[in-house]
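EI: anyone free to look at a 111-residue chain?
SC: sure, send it
EI:
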Amino acid sequence: MLLDPGTGDFYITGSSFSNHSVEFYEQVIDFLERYVTEPLPVTVLNVKLTHRNSATDKCMIQVLESLAKVPAQRAKVIVKWYYPSDDDDDELEYAKSLAGSIDVAFEFIPY
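SC: here you go
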């Protein structure tokens, strides 16, 4: 996890299936709630999760909803969602379902 308010580049990477997902992401969501009040002109959230659980899924929705609070006329928010090119776990479908319910721009990038 890297959240750099100086560049507007945020990274959520790796495995996220801890029993403490809510506590972990609560800090991220608090940070984003403050950040969106004065965002940079472009904010990019890079997401590359190799494993996640249902608690992480709920937290990810909150993360994206926080970023969606940035007024489009003030700044641009882009979510770059990385998914395995063999995508046996339907990660792309999951990301597309999020994109359909959250009002921010998504890019889907195979790796």
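EI: Strands lie at 2-4, 9-16, 42-52, 76-83, 105-110.
SC: 👍
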